[in-house]
TrEMBL record:
Protein's GO biological process: L-proline catabolic process to L-glutamate
UniProt key word Hydrolase: no
Protein name: proline dehydrogenase
GO function terms (MF aspect): nucleotide binding; proline dehydrogenase activity
PANTHER family noted in UniProt: PROLINE DEHYDROGENASE 1, MITOCHONDRIAL (PTHR13914:SF0), PROLINE OXIDASE (PTHR13914)
Cofactor(s) essential for the protein: FAD
Stretches assigned to the Proline dehydrogenase domain: 46-298
């Protein structure tokens, strides 16, 4: 049985599918990718995974909000994450999406919310990364990030760049001028061929190029991929080019390639696990299925076991 990425993303927007998966998904297998629905559950998970030598990025799930009250609540939760990390002593930083903070309501309102989060990150001597969303929101995301970077510095705030976009090389070069801490990903949104590479091989080649360029600029780089071929290429290149181990880390998603995560730790590499939690997990979950449609079969198998 073959399930295409495009089909998964199309079905994800279907109301019937959305209702069914939202009701039964955690039971059927979404918990494989989401570390619980509460912050308390997530912190307990971080504590356990830290014992294995893995570090974490916590992300309270949620995307576009429709009221300022929702955006403020999401901001409050991100602030609470930093407080919980500080209180528990776990090794974790935080990731946020600007649409969850009101970007589509009012960019300046979103900036004010993000400013609160960045201030808390600095207060706690921690770090927040702004996730990148689809291309209509890309420019405003970079603008907000640059304003916060000037205020809080690269030690406390970073950004994500997606290698499937043609413009990514230029974006990385420009951000590298300010020594920005970047998380390089392939990209999981459905984008037109006018702005994104249509072929996987092109996305992969651009991914390697972006990581290499950023590291050669002396910038901290989060290598966020589960692709063993790319990991092998970059490990070899890093060694051959004598890249300082303090300049990079490997990042993977909770529930994806767990064995590989631990193998890299055993080899002495720094590995961070991107760990989402929260009740609004459906959009994130469908993108994980879209990235690897075979995961849909995992869900179906669990359904028929019940």
């Amino acid at each position: 049985m073959s399930i295409s990425r495009s089909l998964v993303l199309t079905l994800a927007g279907n109301r019937v599918v959305t209702s069914f998966v939202s009701k039964y998904g955690m039971k059927l297998g979404a918990s494989r990718f989401v570390a619980g629905e509460s912050l308390e559950e997530a912190v307990r998970f971080v504590s356990e995974i830290n014992k294995e030598g893995l570090i974490v990025t916590l992300d309270h799930l949620g995307e576009s909000v429709y009221t300022k009250e929702e955006a403020i609540a999401a901001t409050d939760e991100s602030v609470r994450i930093f407080e919980a990390i500080a209180e528990s002593g776990v090794n974790s930083n935080v990731s946020v999406k600007l649409t969850q903070l009101g970007l589509d309501i009012d960019p300046e309102f979103c900036f004010e919310n993000m400013d609160r989060i960045a201030a808390k990150a600095k207060e706690c001597n921690n770090f927040v990364r702004i996730d990148m969303e689809d291309t209509p929101r890309l420019e405003v995301t970079i603008d907000i990030f640059n304003r916060l970077l000037a205020k809080y510095g690269k030690a406390h705030i970073g950004l994500v760049i997606q290698s499937y976009l043609y413009r990514a090389v230029d974006d990385v070069a420009k951000l590298g001028e300010n020594q920005v801490n970047l998380r390089i990903v392939k990209g999981a949104y459905k984008e037109p061929a006018a702005v994104a590479f249509p072929e996987k091989s092109e996305v992969d080649d651009n991914y390697v190029r972006l990581v290499q360029n950023h590291l050669l600029s002396g910038c901290y780089t989060a290598i966020a991929t589960h692709d063993e071929t790319i990991i092998h290429i970059l490990k070899k290149w890093i060694k051959e080019n004598h890249i300082d181990d303090n300049l990079y880390e490997f990042q993977m998603l909770y529930g994806v390639r767990n064995g590989l995560q631990r193998d890299l730790v055993k080899e002495g590499y720094k590995v961070r696990v991107y760990t989402p939690y929260g009740k609004d997990w459906y959009p994130y979950f469908t993108r994980r299925i879209a990235e690897r449609p075979a995961n849909a079969l995992f869900i179906l198998k669990n359904f028929f076991k019940n």
